Amino acid sequence: MTETVTPASQQREDPPSGGRLPAIPGPIETARRLWRALRRMSTALLLLFALAAAAVVATVVPQAPVTAQSVEQWRTGEAGPGPTAASVIDALGLFDVFGSWWFGLLVVLLFVSLTGCLVPRYRAFLRVARRPPAPGRNLGRLSNTRTFATDVPPAEVLGAAQRVLGRRRFRVRCIDADGAQQVAAERGHLREGGSLVFHTAFYVLLAGAIIGKVYGFTGQVSLPEGGSFADTRIAYDAADAGRGWELDDHRGFVVTLDEFDVSYFDDLTPREFVSRVTISEQGAPVRTADIRVNHPLRHDGMVLYQLAFGMAPHVVVRAGDRVLYDDRVLLSPNDDQNLWSGTAKVKFDDPERQIALDLVLAPDARLDSEGQPTIGPDPRPNNPVLIGNVYFGALGLQRPIPASQFERGSGPVDTAMLRPGGNAALVEGNLSVEFVDLAYWSGLQVSHAPGRLLLLLGAGLILAGLLPSLYSYRRRVWVDVQPEGTGSRVTVAGVALQRKGVFTDEFDDIATAVDREVRS
Amino acid sequence: MANEALAQSSNTWFNVALLAYIVAMVAYFFRLAFTRVSADGVIAGTAVGRRVGMFGTAVAVVGVGAHTASVVMRGLAAGRVPWANMYEYSSLLALVAVVVGLVVVQQRMGYGHLVGFVLATAVLSMTIGLLLYTPAGPVVPALNSYWIKIHTSAAMASSSIFMVAFVATALYLVKDAAERRVAERSAASFDGSTVGAAHVGGPATTEQRPEGYEADTELDTRVASPLAQREALSPVWFPVVPGLVVVVFVLAVWRAPVAAIIAGSVAALLGTAAWYAVPYLPPAAKLDNLAYRTIAFAFPIWTFAVMAGAIWAEEAWGRYWGWDPKETGSFFTWVLYASYLHARSTHGWRGRRAAWVAVVAFVALMITYYAVNLWIVGLHSYAKA
Ligand code: HEM
Prior knowledge:
The structure holds two protein chains of two kinds. Chain A has ten helices and 23 strands. By secondary structure, chain A is α+β, with helices and mostly antiparallel strands. Chain A folds into four domains: about 90 residues, no CATH class; about 90 residues, TATA-Binding Protein (2-Layer Sandwich), CATH 3.30.310; about 120 residues, no CATH class; about 130 residues, no CATH class. In chain A, strands 4, 6, 10, 11, 12, 20 and 21 form a seven-stranded antiparallel beta sheet that branches. Chain A has a five-stranded antiparallel beta sheet with strand order 1-23-22-3-2, covered by helices on one side. In chain A, a hairpin with a 2-residue loop joins strand 10 and strand 11. Chain B is mainly alpha-helical. A two-stranded antiparallel ribbon of chain B has the order 1-2. In chain B, strand 1 and strand 2 form a beta hairpin. At the A-B interface, helix 3, strand 8, strand 11 and helix 9 of A face helix 11, helix 12 and helix 13 of B. The complex binds protoporphyrin IX containing FE (HEM). Protoporphyrin IX containing FE (HEM) sits at the interface of chains A and B.
C-alpha cells in the first residue's frame, strides 16, 4: 500500500509552533507521526497480530466472565501455574482479556487505523471509478494481445467490439484520436468496492455491539412448575443491564410456568426439554407458548430462552404445629452422579439459632435389604428418595451469599430419608420434615438485545464485500483498429491487475468473440 | 437394531477408505519419485510413474466412494447429520480434503503430483479420528438445530480447504528455500550477481503486482541441475521436525507411546518425501499462488461459519458471542487468516513471511479444532462426548 497524502494532513504540515526547530517533537508533531504510522498497512498488520495474540491468551488462560470457577482455582493454586504466576496474570488483567483496558485500546487503535486506511481509499476509489477507461498505448507490449486482419471497415469493427465488451458488462468508451480508432473498456471496480464495503462493515458491527452493550438487558430466573415471575428488575436471580437500560424499560408482563417436560433417549441422555408458559399482561393471559433449547420465545421485544432445569421437591418443615418452611426447593444436578442437590434456608431471623436443610434427591433410588439407598442410572424421577440433613446454630444464613455456602461447622444434627408424601420426625421430635411432592423447575434467560439487527446487517455486508474483493479483478481491454485498404487491422489487447491466470482465459474468449462478431 | 448394523458397516467402510488412501498415497509418492526434471526445468513423468499415478488416482477415487458410504451410513445410523463429534469431524475433514485435492488441485489446477501430500494429511486426520472414536448416537438438545448443521458444515468445509492450503504453503516454503539457495550459489559461483536477492521479493505475488511488472521466469533455466535443489537442503530437518511435532502432540493428548511412534514415523516419512520431492515440485511462485487461491476460497466460508455459529449461540444460549474458548479460538484463526491476506499485499511481508503467517494460522486452526475441544473447559467441550 502506498501512502496517500490527504489534504487534511498537508494542512497540518506547518505546526503553529513558530520558526525554531524543537529538539523533541511537540505534541502536534507527535500526533501527526502517530496518525501517519497508524495509517500504514504494516501497522494494521501488527494490530491484527496483537488482536490474535490477545485471543490466544484468552483461550489458554481461563476467563472470569466465562469460567469463573477455573479462575478461582488458578488464583488459589489448585490448577494452573501456581498462585504467584496467577497474581502476575491478575495484575496484567489476563483473567478478563476482553474487558481489560489494553484490549479496549487495541480495538480503538484498530478502528483509528481502519479509518486512516479507508478515507484515502474511498477518495481514490471514487476518483478512479468515475474516470472513463483510459486510451491504450503501445498495445503490442501488453501481456495479452491478439492481432488479426479483416475486410470489414473500421467503424463496423468498433461497433462489434463495443457490443462484445458491453455484453460482458465492461464499461466501454470509444476513442477517436490522432487517426487511431480505439475501444477502451474496463471492468472489476467491484474488487476495491467490495473491499471497502467489507472494511466499512466493521463500523456497523461495532455500532451493533455497542448498542447491545449499552441498551441491552439479560436476566436469569429459575421457577418451579406452577410458579411465575414478572418482568421487573427484582424478579431476576442474576441480571446484567446496560448503562442505558432503565428500570421502567422492563415490560412488566408475567410469565407462569404451567408445565415442564423433559424426554430422554434410550441411553438416558436428554432428548429435549420444554417449558410451557403462559404470559399475562395486566392480569389477563395473552398467550401460551413453548420454550425449548434452540427455540426461544419472543415477546414484546424480550426474548426468553430455555437455559437449565432441575428437580423441585415441595418441602414443609414444622416445629410442633408451627410451619417454619413451606416451599419448593430448587435442586441442581451433581456433575458426576445421578443426584440433585440444594439447600433450604428454614429459619434465619436469629443469627445464633438458625436452621438449614441440605437436600439431596436421588431420582432412581432402590433400597437394599438394610434400607440403604443405591443410586440407579435413570434420571427420570420414577423412584425418588429425598435425603435431608438438618443443621442448627450460627450458620451465617443472613450473609448475602448463596444459601448453599452456609457454615456447616459442626455437621448435621439429624438426617431424614423420605419418599414423596413421607414425613419424618427429627431432633427428638422437635422438628418434622415433610416431602409433599416432586416437580421440575426451569431456568430461563430473558434478554433484550437491541443491536442484533445491526450485527446481522454488518455480517451480511462483510460477506457481500468479501466475495467480490477476493474474486473480482480489475482488467482493461482495448480494441485498436487501423484502416487497411477497405478493411481493417484489429489489435485486441488486455491487462489485468489481479488474477492474471484467469484473465488470460477470459482474454482469449473476448478476442475470439470480437473476431467472430466482426465476421458475422 | 438395524442401526447397529448400519453403524458397523459405516466403520467397515471407514477402514476401507483409510486403507485405500494409504495405498493411493504410496502410489502418488511413487509417481512423484518417477518424475524427471530436464535441465531446462520441465517436469515430465516417466511411463512407469504415469501408470502408477493413474492407479493411485483410481484407488483414491474408490477410497472417496467408500468414505462417502461410511459417512452416509453413519448419518443414517445416528438419525442426524454425520458431523456432531470429533470422530465424525475428523472423518469428514479428510473426505473433503481428498475431494478438494482430486478435483481442484489435480483436475482443475493440474498439480496431480501434489495429491500424495493431501492424502497424507487425510490419513493423519482419519488416524486422529480413530483415536477419538465415539459410537454413533444422538446429540444433546443444544446441538439439535439447523444452524449447527450450517455452522459445522461450513467450518468443516473451510477447514479441509485450509488443510490443502497448508500443504501448498509448506511445500512453497521448502521449494522457495531450495530455489533461493541454488540461486545464491550459482550467483556466487558464476558472476556474483544478485539473482538470489532479486528472487527474494520474487514471483511469489503475481496476484498483487503493479501493472507492467515482468516476472523473471528466466531464473529456473539458470539452474544448472534441478537436483541441486535437493542437495541445497539439509535432509536432517525434514523428517525430524514433523516427526517430533506429531510425537509430542499424540503423547500430550493420548499418552499412547506406540501410537505416537507410529504417527511420528509417518510424519517423518512425509518430511523425507517432501525433501526428496523438492526438484519435482512446481515452482515456488506457483505453489504460493495455489496456497493463496485455496485460502482465499476457504476464508469467506470460514467467515460465514463463524457468523452462523454466532447466530446459533444466540438461539441456544441467548447470546451471540461470549468469548467461550471455542469462539475465541475460531476468532483468532479468522484474524490470522485475515492477517495472511493483508500480509500478501503489505510491502516487506510478501512471500516467505506471509507464508509463515499462513502456517501459524493453520496451527491456530488445529488448536481450535482439537486442543480446545480436548483440554479447555467451555460450553463447546461437550463436542467430545
Ligand atoms: C478490522 C480489522 C481488519 C480486518 C479483519 C481486515 C481484513 C481484511 C481482509 C480479509 C482482506 C482481504 C480481502 C479484501 O481484499 O477485502 C483485507 C484487505 C485489505 N485490507 Fe484489511 N482488514 C482489517 C483492517 C484493515 C486496516 C486497518 C487497513 C489499513 C491499513 C486495511 C487495509 C486493507 C487493504 C488495503 C486491503 C486490500 C488488499 C488487497 O486487496 O490486496 N485493513 N483486509
